[in-house]
Design goal:
By secondary structure, this protein is α+β, with helices and mostly antiparallel strands. It has nine helices and 16 strands. 23% of the residues lie in helices and 32% in strands. The strands form three sheets. Strands 7-8-9-11-5-4-3-12-13-14-16-15 form a twelve-stranded antiparallel β-sheet, with helices on both faces. The longest helix has 12 residues. The chain is globular, with a radius of gyration of 20 Å. The N terminus is likely disordered.
């Protein structure tokens, strides 16, 4: 892929790649037109309900198992109507999983290809078909969506393969340790980014990579990238991009220490396209 499109590709692929999983996961015997399902309150489901903050990837990592290789966070509600919404693609299929709007999403992908998803939905109702699992798990009722995919009711909703959902419930109940793989990178991440991604890198530009997009105010956008053990080429490329960034109406702030390289690029909202396609390494 041409390097200048790397940044926008990464942002778009974060959302667009979720749909294959969601569609295949819900094509089992429970799939029906949500308009035919009478919505019920969360209280209609017995057992405990999930109660977690979901405002960042850090919140999601608190209940994510240690073998996650990529995590993503989107605040769809906040970026609605802003330029950042252009990077999320069509999320109607995601809303279709619940029959209501998904306001926030967290996704963890594991080394074996499985995933854990968490969604804040509005209104908080059950508007989809499901089967009840025969037994509670840690006091929580699992709702089968078919094909070994389950929901657990709450704020946020848990959604994923049974093992990953149960692993999250173990972490919530203090029976399992949460993910600490990305702690070093997260030391350099400020809160508030509406789009976030953290990945273990396997192609050599760094060992780990954080990508965050934030609408600073009504007129300013920022993109922050943090690299753990960046390659020399990465450092050189970032330095070169910074040197002539004013030609693209971008402002660079570069910080480095030991094993960390942090780069924040800002621009006016009107210059969103230039920020979106600015290479990240």
């Amino acid at each position: 892929m041409n390097q200048k499109y790397v940044a926008i590709f990464l942002a778009v692929i974060m959302v667009m790649s979720i749909f294959t999983f969601f569609i295949s996961a819900t094509m089992g015997p429970t799939e029906e037109d949500s308009s035919s399902v009478e919505a019920a309150s969360f209280d209609s489901v017995s057992g405990k309900h999930v109660e977690l903050e979901l405002n960042s990837i850090e919140d999601g990592l608190a209940v994510t198992a240690g073998d996650a290789v990529a995590v993503q966070y989107f605040d769809f509600q906040t970026i609605s109507g802003t330029p950042l919404e252009l990077l999320t693609g069509n999320t109607s299929q995601l809303d279709g999983i619940y029959g209501v709007r998904v306001n926030k999403m967290y996704r963890a992908q594991y080394i074996d290809g499985t995933e854990l998803n968490m969604h804040e939905i509005s209104p908080q109702v059950i508007a989809f078909q499901y089967y009840l699992a025969p037994e509670l798990y840690n006091g929580y009722q699992l709702l089968s969506r078919g094909n070994n995919v389950y929901n657990v009711v709450g704020e946020p909703m848990l959604f994923g393969e049974k093992a990953e959902v149960e692993s999250a419930l173990d972490a919530i109940e203090g029976k399992a340790e949460s993910n600490t793989e990305f702690e070093r990178v997260l030391e350099f991440v400020e809160p508030g980014a509406e789009i976030q991604q953290l990945i273990l890198v396997d192609d050599g530009f760094a060992d780990q990579y954080y990508f965050g997009l934030k609408l600073e105010d009504g007129s300013t956008l920022s993109r922050t990238t943090v690299y753990l053990n960046p390659a020399e080429d990465t450092i050189n490329n970032v330095t070169a991009l910074s040197a002539n960034s004013s030609e693209r109406a971008l402002s660079y702030d570069i910080y480095s220490e030991d094993d960390i390289l942090k780069v924040t690029v800002t621009s006016d909202v009107a210059n969103f396209y230039s920020l979106a396609i600015e290479p990240a390494w």
